[in-house]
Every structure is written in C-alpha cells, then in structure tokens.
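Researcher: Re-running this chain for the archive, since the previous output was lost when a drive failed. Same request as before.
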Amino acid sequence: MHVLILPMYYPEKGAPSHRGYMFYEQAMQIVRSGCRVGLVYTEQRLRKECTWKVFRKESHFQITAEDNGSFVTLRMHAWNPKLSTRIGGIIWSLLTLILVRSYIRRYGKPDVIHAHFGTWAGYAANLVYKCYGIPYVVTEHASSINAGTVSPRQAATLRTAYKNARKVLCVGSLLKDNLQSYLDRPEKAMVLPNFVDMSTFHQADHRTEKEKKFVFVSVGNLGKRKGFAELIDAFDQSFHGQRGVSLLVVGDGEEEENLRNKIASLHLEEQVSLTGRLPRDQVARLLATCDAFVLASYAETFGIVFIEALATGMPAIGTVCGGPEDIITPESGFLIQPGDVKALAEKMRLLYDTYEQFDKERIRESVAERFDFAQAGEKLKEIYLQAIKK
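Model: Regenerated structure tokens:
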C-alpha cells in the first residue's frame, strides 16, 4: 500500500528542531508496518524574510527530493503570506496540489493520502481528491476547535476539508465531540491518540530523595494558553522558601520576559528556572532526571508532552482542557480545572507529600499499553485499508 503524508509543519531550515518531528516519526512507523510511504511538504517561509541576500542564496519554489532510505520527502521551497489568513492558506494548498502532482509523476499515484490538520493540509487533500480521486483521511490537532475560537471562515474551511475525507482522526475524545458540527456524517470521526517513542523517553534511573531534592518540570511554548504564570503562582503558594524543591520550565515564547519578571517579583530565583527551548533529545534526558511533571494549559487537543513525561515513570498534574483527561489516570497523577491556582497549588503539594504512593513502573507500563509508537503503524494501516475499500 502506497501512503502519501501531507503535514502542515515539518522540519525545515531555520525552524526549531522539534517542528513537525512527530510526522517524521509517524512516517517511520507506517514504513515499519509494511507500507510504501512518501511525504510532501510546502515550506511556509514568510515573504518579509526574503531579503536581497536571501534571494541570491536561497531556492524559490524549486522542488527537491530527500530519500532517507525509508521514505521520500518531496519539498517545495516556497514563500507565502501568513498562513493564518485565508488567502495564505489557499495559496499554500494550491502549491501543495502542484507538489502532489510532481510526486505522482515521479513516484506514482498513492493509494491513500493522510493529511494533518484540516486547515490547510486537509483542504489541500480535498483538492487532490477532486483532481485525482485519491481517498484521504485527516488527523485533526487544532486546539482552536476545543477552545471555541474557530472563526466562520475557518469553520467553512474545515467543512470543506472533511467533506470527502474517509475518516477524520481526532487525537482526543473532547476534540471528537467538538468536531461534530463540521462533519457531514458524525461516524466519520474516531479517536486515535498521538504516540510516544518509548525508547527515546525511557524510565528514570535516578532515585528520588524528596527531602534533599525534588524537581517539578513543565514543557511547552511560553504563551498565555499554557498557564505558566498560574503554575509559578501555585508553586509559590506551596513551596516558597522550601529548599530542595524546584521548578524547571522548558520552552520559549512571547511570555518569557513576563515570566522572568514574575519569578523575580516573587523572589523565586533560587527555586524556579526557565531553561529556554531545548532539542528533543535533551528534553528526553532532562525528563529522566526530574521527579514530577505539571502543565496548567487552558486548551489542549492531546498533550504529547504528558505521555513523554509519563513514559519516564514520573507522575503528572494536568488540566481538564481537552487532552490530559484522556491521558492522566488516578494512578498516574491529578487533574484540575484550568486557571484554578489554589487547586493547582494543593495538588502539587499533595503529589509531593504522597509521592511514594506512585508506582513509576506501572505509570510507564500504562503509557506503553496505550500510546507506544510501535502500535501507531498497524493502527493506521487498518484505517488506510478501510479508506481504500470505501
């Protein structure tokens, strides 16, 4: 079976190393399931970045092929208006249609297309379907759907993207519920979670001695939606001045300066640290040295950082916001409502006080049973076969 993947994001020059890496990993798992895999990606470089120096040295809408020995990536070195605008999304989709045409000419017509995000990869997959009749499935990840911030124009795009899709795969159960208003048939939607590479995120081998050292860790983009300001306030309420207890925040973003100012105003410089963004392998190593994970998001479609953290055996605290409630169980941690600083402080304290009750091996086993990447390829292969038969 020949599968072509259309991601909205993918590793590219100048972008953070983690950008779109999950799509690369998924492609590898599909290959291991016995499928032939290709991937096409239209770059999203902004026009304002096209200086004279860049113009002389960079590619402009050329198409290049990369073969890693497992699958081929066909890449268009495109320039684009901001993708958050409708015109930018349509341009990207049309360029992707051109790129798929080039892929078909070089490597043959795929049996099925797997698009990630309705806007705009799903929209592009629908264009390909109209031109070539190739069946497609869409995996939806957009947190805006759970957050209720989808505009009327975005809603129209989603309906178009899903209209001819054989399946719409939702990474969380809440997302599946919230997608229903965009579907022509509710049975199209099904839950298929994200997966984690258990060999990369391995069980911690350090021994926690909480009276001497205990580290809470949080990972994410430093935006207001992730709730880092609330997390720092909660940590302050429960552990201010308690030597040995610390909080590491991994990531960067527009709230970084505000968070540093908050840390200083609360006099937490000795306990709370912002590491900046770290490469994925460093994040994996860091998680294996920490004791508990916490993320106070206001909206998630899944929350892959939770399963990465739990894969190391550490307990976690999350919010009921669309993703963590499908991941965290009473045996692996606690859930609170978004924005409830008092409850977050109480649960962080409770986790610390009852830490010995958490079974690290069982936490890791639970993640492996539900989210191990080894399952991803076979589950997707079944979905592709169903899509082709219809």
